[in-house]
Every structure is written in C-alpha cells, then in structure tokens.
Amino acid sequence: MNYTLTQLPDRTEKPRQSGLTMVMDKGLSLREVEDFLSTSAGHSDIVKLGWATSFVTPNLKDKIAIYQSAGIPVYFGGTLFEAFVVRNQFDEYRKLLDKYGLEHAEVSDGSIDMNQDDKCNYIRTLATQVTVLSEVGSKDEAKIIPPYKWIQLMKSELQAGAWKVIGEAREGGTVGLFRASGEVRQGLVEEILTQVPFESILWEAPQKEQQVWFVKLLGANVNLGNIAPHEVIPLETIRLGLRGDTFSHFLDK
Amino acid sequence: MNYTLTQLPDRTEKPRQSGLTMVMDKGLSLREVEDFLSTSAGHSDIVKLGWATSFVTPNLKDKIAIYQSAGIPVYFGGTLFEAFVVRNQFDEYRKLLDKYGLEHAEVSDGSIDMNQDDKCNYIRTLATQVTVLSEVGSKDEAKIIPPYKWIQLMKSELQAGAWKVIGEAREGGTVGLFRASGEVRQGLVEEILTQVPFESILWEAPQKEQQVWFVKLLGANVNLGNIAPHEVIPLETIRLGLRGDTFSHFLDK
Amino acid sequence: MNYTLTQLPDRTEKPRQSGLTMVMDKGLSLREVEDFLSTSAGHSDIVKLGWATSFVTPNLKDKIAIYQSAGIPVYFGGTLFEAFVVRNQFDEYRKLLDKYGLEHAEVSDGSIDMNQDDKCNYIRTLATQVTVLSEVGSKDEAKIIPPYKWIQLMKSELQAGAWKVIGEAREGGTVGLFRASGEVRQGLVEEILTQVPFESILWEAPQKEQQVWFVKLLGANVNLGNIAPHEVIPLETIRLGLRGDTFSHFLDK
C-alpha cells in the first residue's frame, strides 16, 4: 500500500479461502492482460475466461500462460462445460483442460437441464482432475429457485467435491441472486448463509451496487466474482471502506 | 478455433456479404487498435471512426493505416459527412476521403434535413469514388418513420448505388430501430425484410440484447454494426450459439 | 485538427480557466496512461485519481510522473482527503501531497460531516501548499441541499482560497447535481450561476446526457469533470457541435 491509514478492515492474503476476487476476462488481448496484471494481480485470485469466449480467442495458450506465470489460475466459464456436455463431448472437455494446463474447472447448468445426480457426478469426476467450482442458479429469469432448494443444491455440490459453489448472476447481473432490477434477493442470501459456510460461497456480483451490498452484509473478505478487469481496483477500495459507498462501514463508532 | 464443437451454425468467411460485423472506434489509441486487431481482426469486417471523432483524433493517418494493413477498411461516421454538407463543404469532404486513402464512405441524414433526391444524388456521386454505406433513420426520437417509408428509402438508396443500407441506432441504441427502452421495433424489422434483401441491410445493434434479438430472428450471419471493440468477441459467441442467450438456438432439436 | 470545418465554436486553449476537462482515472496501468495521453492529452486539463484508488494502485509515483511530464496535473480524489481527516491524520495527508509532488488537492465532505468553518480552514491551510479544488454536495441521496445553500457554500469556499468549486456527482452520476434518474437539476444550476462565476465552477458530468446538457446550456467552454478516459475525445466532439446531440447548436441560423 502506498501510505498508511488506520481503522482499515483486515484483508486476508493470497492464497486465501475467503476474500477472493474472481475476475471475468471476456476477450482481453495479451497486452491488455499484462496491463491488468500490472495493476491488479495483487488483488485478483482467479480469472474466468467468460462463457465460451475461449473458442474464438486467439493466442489462448499464451494468454493462459501469462496469467499462470503471475500466480493466477484460469478456468473456462461454465457455459463452455455445458456446450461440451450437451453435445456428448464431455471426454473431449476433460482432454481440453489438460491440453491447456488448467487446474480449475466450472460445472454449471445455467443453460441446460441437468438432474442433480448427473451434476454431482460431473463434479465428482472433474474433482479427480482439477479443482472444481460449481454454479447454482439458472440464467433463465423464469426459473425461480426457492431458498431451501438453493441450500440443498449447494450442500450436495460441496459434498460431491466442489471447492466453492458460485451464486449465479449474468454478466449484467440480472438473474439468479438478483431481481430483474439488479437488486439483491436479500432474504435468499441470508437464508443460504444459515446453512452453507461463508467461505464456501463465491457470489457473482458484477455491478458496483451489488459489491457494496455484499461487503456491507458480509464484510471485506466476502468472495466476489464476475468482476470486470477494470473494476478490481475499485472493488478493493470498496472492501477496505475507501470508497464513498462503504466509507463509514469499518470506522470505529 | 481453439477446439472442435459440433452443431455450430455455418459462419460466412471474410470477405463476406452477410454476417458482417461493423465496429465503432470512438477514439482508440494506436496501441489499442493493435490490441483490438490482435484479438478481433478475424471477426471484424469494417471499422467506423464514430461520427466526427476523426476531427480530434491524433495520428489519424497512422490509425487508418494500421486497420488497412490488417485488411479491414475504415470509414468516417455519417455525422462527419453531414457536418461537411451542412457547411456547403461537400467537395472538401470528397478530397478528404482521398487524402486519407479511404475506400468507403457513409451518407446519412440523421442530424440534418435532406430531401431524398439530394440524398440519392450524394450517394450516386460518392459511389463513383468509394463504396457507399447509406443510413436510414433519424437520431431524433421525435421523428418516427413508418415502415413503408423505411422500405421506400432503403430501396431508393440501394438503387442509387449504396452497397449496404444501415438501420440507424445511436451509440447507446435508443432511437431509429429501437424504442426509448432499447427494445427492438420487431414489426418494423420484419416488414422491411419482406421487401429489402437480408444481405443488403446492416443493422446497428450496439447493445447485447439487440444483438441477441437479431441473431435469434435472422441467424448467425446477420450484418450487425456499431459494435464496441471489446464486444466483438462476445458478439461472435452470440452468433455461434456459445453464449447463454443463444445457447439452445442452433442445437439439433 | 485533421481538417477544416467552418462554424465551430471557439475553444479556449491550454492552460485555460474555462473549458476545462477533468478526467477520472480509477486505476489505469502505466501503459494505459500512455495510450490515453497519446490520444487525449491535448483535450485533458487535469486528472483525478478517483477517490482512494491511489491507496491500492501500484507504481503510483511513476503514474503521476507520466501525467506530469505530459503537462497534466494530478490530484487525489476528495474521498482520500476525507479518509485522512476522519482518522485525525490530516498532517500526514499534507506530507503525502509533498511526497508525491502533487500541486493540487481536493477538499470535500461528501462522506463525512464537517461544519463549514472547518472545511474553509482546511481549504485555507491547503491553499498555502497547493492549488485547491473544493467540492460541494453530498454523496448521500438523502441529503438535499437547497439552492441558496449551494451558493453560500460555493462562495465561502472560493473566498477561503479554492481555485475551483466542484459540483458533486458520483461516478455513476446520480446524486448532488443529478436526480436519481441521472437528470440534471436545472433550476439549481441556473440559480447557482446567477451568483457564482461560470469559470469558477467545475461541474461533474460523467454521463453523456449530462455533458450534452451542460454544453447546450453553458457552451463549448463549460468546465466538466469526472470524465472517463475513453470519453474525452467524444466529449470534445460534443463541445464542438460535432456529435449528433449538439450538431445544430453552434451552426449559424
């Protein structure tokens, strides 16, 4: 840090289990990745190559290598996993992870129907190969999952071997955890936390208001994801109470 | 492509007449242009230097050269054409195109009143010099053009020598083809397509929801424009059914 | 400029007292700063390192040096001043300004309660060390300041030694001068201008609609701030009547 301020919340340090920032790369160039790392590597824990952008991204191997050499693991968005599964190409997906030297993978069912046993089997299988993040929640606005069901899904996926369960939002932040307005479904989040450990959940929160909401409710070291590369530094200030929105939150009363 | 997936829609290949992606550059630096090309040249067909940003952009000649040497033609936004015309400087505009070695130009009347004969004359004149894109639709929310009139305008402009007619939107995507809410005027688009060839129209669709709407209605190879540089890769995944929004659209039923 | 157009409004030249563009940097990398300067240095007057982003930005000294060597002064966002004050670390703040060779500073009370005498004392003290910008308006949507009070605050802060007073908005542009909808509080702006000199005020206007509104009301050379780096060239075209939104504004009738 560039100077000293008192009354800042304690931040966990990398590698960490809580306080994770997961960044969404949806097509950065190699030089943009370098730029990003030069400012934000210290505040970024893991990078997702959004949905199936990896399919059309040139220099994919080089890009992954740049992130990895900065100590930041990379994984493919869950939509890519689903694209392989829906085409009966799951074995090819497993080979793909090895081909690109990935040590993390996401299991999700945001765009396809998958029964929970099958999903947990995918988690179990992939967990023998990589560290698994599994995502709960649909990308479809019409599919409302009641709170008890969120809890049941999260628990069974952690039990199947998921390292973290992800609370689904879309890039724009309007489904799953969020109402169409972008507002957080507060009761849902609170009920989930009565039964699932805080550090096991990574909340997708692409919009600033959502990040503020989670930091105010759950503190500086909440796990947050789908953060745009240019928003990692702003998010870090929100976590530390150094932006207007959370300015008073961590001060001594 | 970095790996193989079945059941993808056929994409046309460059140079193409349909499936065009027109990108809007509103002031990139030379290095940002290089970055953009390193990821997206293969998915970009033509670049517009937005409205009159070329007036205040340094290194204009170098910038155009970088795009052209990547095989991507560049043209000035229609507002610049209008700025010259409204000042009775049309001859100077023609010289400007040559000075910068441009092979495309846009004719539009989004910000000025111009009768249709005059507009078609501008198209005819410019078509002797460059490839012309002509834009239909006003930037003024109050000016509603009925469908039969859109069709008549598009037909006469194509007949006057326009290579493509552009369905006007603003950078933010809220007039012309779109309601103030950003929603597409579906009846308008469908009626236009009964009379004007699909491949002759380039639809401005700067917002993701609009891109999704056009791909679902008209397929992977619809011509889309005003795409922000960082949205070219995401758009390509929408075209291919590899983003949540169009995930099921191209799959075998 | 790359070509000649008649009927353009006169723009003041750097260094200027009116027509200022203040840019918000919320975490650019060194190379991104270079890119920004290569396109926009000529149209940028001063750069703010947004709120307390300087706390977590690596290479801070180098970044400031790059801006300064391009002739563009840099200052820390007002929230950082407040973060030091609320912790009784004001003397350290003054040393920090010297350590980083800054010649400008912002005094604000957007996130803390400060009585007006104290605020003016901070302005007076800092004005012996640097050029002071002081900000009026709360970041809290619930705190509505009536127009007579805005005027009184602005006058007393200018009298205390502020070079410019800033009309507060948030990065997203939704409080202070703006309603929750982002709409400008027109009556407020007009009443302020009956009593406070035009060139002494710098209006925060991060959104395009706000920039257009101020240029239409106050002309090409209104002072505008919180402009995103990639929006400086677009703003310059708005100032010059070379974007659709202000296209007709400066033309001879």
TrEMBL record, chains A, B, C:
Q: SUPFAM superfamilies of this UniProt entry?
A: (2r)-phospho-3-sulfolactate synthase ComA
* The family this protein is said to belong to: Belongs to the phosphosulfolactate synthase family.
> Organism, per UniProt?
Spirosoma endophyticum
Q: Which domain of life is it from?
A: Bacteria
List the protein's name: Phosphosulfolactate synthase
